[in-house]
């Protein structure tokens, strides 16, 4: 049972691969992973059911490798997400939260295969579930896998953790007048060219009325505040 005062009972958290690299550009920084794990465990202590989709951009993005067959490059990318998922699982289990990794590409020696009903059963039993290997299909992103899994498990929101603390009217790095958008509709976000998710992921959310919240997970207490329904980051909803 979710604690009273929580806005969401079950959510899907999408974490980009960069977040696991910390200050590095590449690979896994154990301290960064520990910090992410701490944020996640704080949220779980509220009684929320949380599933995570983890990206792989800290290792490889298929679309950036033009001299390799695109499907092959994407499979390499999906395997990268599995490394991240295992690192995150370790860090979370060190904080005594039972965690299961499910992969969209079968590799039973390291993780469970993705089985929707089993994932839901894990959540109901208070386990954290990390979905790895994206959607299992090339030409997709882990944002799309996040939107897809969110819908499949009946999540009430897709929480997208990014390096910036929300969506801005312009690039805050180059324009000092850029302001953070607190709330917007799907159509406004599209019309204003806001880059919240890639087009496939975004339309999946829009078509199914799944609220998206973009925020910075590294900010202490941010995930807890998102779950409480406080104004954090940018909310995209109907
Ligand atoms: N990928 C894929 N299908 C999926 C998810 C991911 O082919 O369903 C591949 C794709 O090459 C992608 C890479 O895995 O570039 C890493 O995922 P992503 O770029 O979404 O990671 P993030 O930017 O979130 O770290």
Could you explain how this protein is built, in words?
By secondary structure, this protein is an alpha/beta fold. The protein is about 35% helix and about 15% strand. The chain is built from eight helices and nine strands. A nine-stranded mixed β-sheet has the order 4-3-5-2-1-6-8-9-7, sandwiched between helices. The longest helix is centred in the middle third of the chain and has 24 residues, at about 70-95. The chain starts with 9 loop residues before the first strand and ends with a strand. Bound molecules: uridine-5'-diphosphate. Uridine-5'-diphosphate (UDP) binds near residues 16, 17, 62, 74 and 78. The site of uridine-5'-diphosphate has 25 residues, from helix 3 and helix 5.
Blueprint (SSEs and pairs):
Layout: E1 10-15, H1 18-21, H2 30-44, E2 49-54, H3 70-93, E3 99-103, E4 112-113, H4 116-124, E5 128-132, H5 142-152, E6 158-161, E7 183-185, H6 186-191, H7 199-207, E8 212-215, H8 222-228, E9 234-237
Parallel strand pairs: 1-2, 1-6, 2-5, 3-4, 3-5, 6-8, 7-9
Antiparallel strand pairs: 8-9
Helix pairs in contact: 2-3, 2-8, 5-7
The structure holds uridine-5'-diphosphate.
Uridine-5'-diphosphate is lined by residues 16-18, 55-57, 61-63, 73-74, 77-78, 80-81, 134-135, 137-138, 140-145.
């Amino acid at each position: 049972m979710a604690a009273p005062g929580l806005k969401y009972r079950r959510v899907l958290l999408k974490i980009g691969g960069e977040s696991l690299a910390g200050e590095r550009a590449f690979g896994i920084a154990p301290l960064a992973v520990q910090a992410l794990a701490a944020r996640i465990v704080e949220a779980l202590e509220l009684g929320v059911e949380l599933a995570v989709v983890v990206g792989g951009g800290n290792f490889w993005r298929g679309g950036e490798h033009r001299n390799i067959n695109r499907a092959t490059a994407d499979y390499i990318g999906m395997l990268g997400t599995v490394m991240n998922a295992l690192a995150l699982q370790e860090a979370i289990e060190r904080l005594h939260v039972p965690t299961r990794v499910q992969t969209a590409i079968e590799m039973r020696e390291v993780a469970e295969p993705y089985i929707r009903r089993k994932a839901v059963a894990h959540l109901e039993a208070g386990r954290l579930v990390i979905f790895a290997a994206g959607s299992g299909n090339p030409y997709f992103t882990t944002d799309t896998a996040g939107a897809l899994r969110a819908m499949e498990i009946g999540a009430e929101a897709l929480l997208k953790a990014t390096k910036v603390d929300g969506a801005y009217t312009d690039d805050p790095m180059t324009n000092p007048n850029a302001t953070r958008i607190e709330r917007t509709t799907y159509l406004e976000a599209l019309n204003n060219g806001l880059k919240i998710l890639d087009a496939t992921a975004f339309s999946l959310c829009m078509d199914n009325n799944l609220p998206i919240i973009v925020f910075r997970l590294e900010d202490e207490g941010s995930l807890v505040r998102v779950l409480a329904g406080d104004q954090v980051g940018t909310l995209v909803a109907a």
